[in-house]
Design brief:
single chain; alpha+beta
Length: 97
């Protein structure tokens, strides 16, 4: 069916994600990793080896025990910041390895 009126790209993307909630959640998880990396200081970010999100849990692998403790102490504020920026609760817990 042809459209007779132009449609804004934002509306089209919104319709696409509302019809594909699984894809929208995966994209939000990727954005959560990016927000996590941006929320850390440059000194802390150098020691982060790997970050991934699966089923609402963010797994962070760190190479330094001091940095691991620092992130452990700040994990609730980091989690709140990520969820606030995404406007939904994507991250339920942060696990530091």
């Amino acid at each position: 069916m042809r459209r007779t009126e132009p449609v804004k790209i934002g509306e089209m993307i919104g319709d696409f994600f509302s019809s594909n909630p699984k894809l929208a959640r995966k994209i939000a998880e990727v954005r959560a990793v990016e927000i996590f990396k941006q929320s850390l200081d440059n000194n802390l970010a150098d020691y982060i080896m790997r970050v991934n999100v699966s089923y609402g849990k963010m797994y962070v692998q760190v190479s330094s025990s001091v940095i691991r403790h620092e992130i452990f102490m700040r994990r609730s504020s980091i989690m709140e910041k990520i969820n606030k920026e995404l406007n939904e609760e994507i991250i339920s817990t942060i696990i530091i390895k």
